[in-house]
Amino acid sequence: GAAELGPYRHFMQKEIFEQPRVVGDTLEGVIGIMPELFGDEAYKVFKQIDRVLILACGTSYYAGLTAKYWIESIAKVPVSVEIASEYRYRDSVPHPDTLVVTISQSGETADTIAALKHARSLGMEHTLTICNVATSAMVRECKLAYITRAGVEVGVASTKAFTTQLAALFLLTLTLAQVNGRLSEEEETAHMKAMRHLPSAITAVLALEPQIIAWAEEFARKENALFLGRGMHYPIALEGALKLKEISYIHAEAYPAGELKHGPLALVTEEMPVVTIAPNDALIEKLKSNMQEVRARGGHLYVFADVDSRITSGEGLHVIRLPEHYGCLSPILHVVSLQLLAYHTALARGTDVDKPRNLAKSVTVE
Ligand code: G6P
Hints:
Blueprint: H1 2-5, H2 11-17, H3 19-27, H4 42-48, E1 51-56, H5 58-75, E2 79-83, H6 84-87, E3 98-104, H7 110-121, E4 127-131, H8 137-141, E5 144-147, H9 160-179, H10 185-206, H11 209-219, E6 224-229, H12 234-248, E7 251-256, E8 273-278, H13 284-296, E9 300-306, E10 317-322, H14 330-349
Parallel strand pairs: 1-2, 1-3, 3-4, 4-5, 6-7, 6-8, 8-9, 9-10
Helix pairs in contact: 3-9, 3-10, 5-9, 5-12, 10-14, 11-14, 12-14
Bound molecules: 6-O-phosphono-alpha-D-glucopyranose.
6-O-phosphono-alpha-D-glucopyranose (G6P) binds near residues 105, 158 and 361.
């Protein structure tokens, strides 16, 4: 009802704005990295495994893809990420020393539960879930768990569940790094500090809402959009495109920016808005040349650029500046701006934001 919504028009908007608090809640009480955060047996399990297999669907799958970049770079453990409905039915090569990680907001997604059981039937016993519902089937089925504290998510399009999953997955990354002797005390202190600062960093991104509304009014008139990202922001581009298609019904696709020339460039015309995630990281110069490729074909760029990335607006190039570059945790900030873009585009198109056609909050049958 209206009372629950407070000043917001939809649950999705309310849930986007709850993110500083629920990300903080998810990390609350974490004063240092220790395996026990994931369960009593976690140390023993983490010592034993030498690879990670992540299984999930939808937005949770994109959280898993982001985690692959983190875990391989920081903990140096090989990770594969699979869509649950594919994994459960394909012939794969199991390995007993695998940490099987399921990611699920509801903990009840039929495909993800079936994929978990399939992994177990192949002899993989080390199971961990990152889940938002402590009483769910998923938590009961897994040996280890980290419960995100997003609270009840009503909007079908997942927002706060995603950012809390990312926070939990970053903790998992640091924990695996520590168990493998790859996390110095200085690094731990620096990462802990960055995590503590997340709520205020997210709040600063939420303050960009008025600028994003102006873009959304233009997007509302489009039928297609392309999202570009590189590295750990490629999964964020995928999530941004998913949000837009789910609730505004605009056809949206995401590509790793370096892959543009192998296909999607053929779609670029003046009619194609190209949303670009431009963190000020090691790939920024490469990304700028990808942006040139779009401009040269008349495509209009809408760039979310970190403040120090030296990208300035011009003809066919629109820029919204994120307040800071946030290192490893940058995906958590960039996705918030894309959630707002999808929300306001859908609002301008008058779609049923919280209950998009044909979609369900939790898919408990196959
Ligand atoms: C549905 C929801 C998505 C969600 C996906 C996986 O498709 O609409 O928002 O990401 O299921 O759900 P889960 O509860 O397993 O994270």
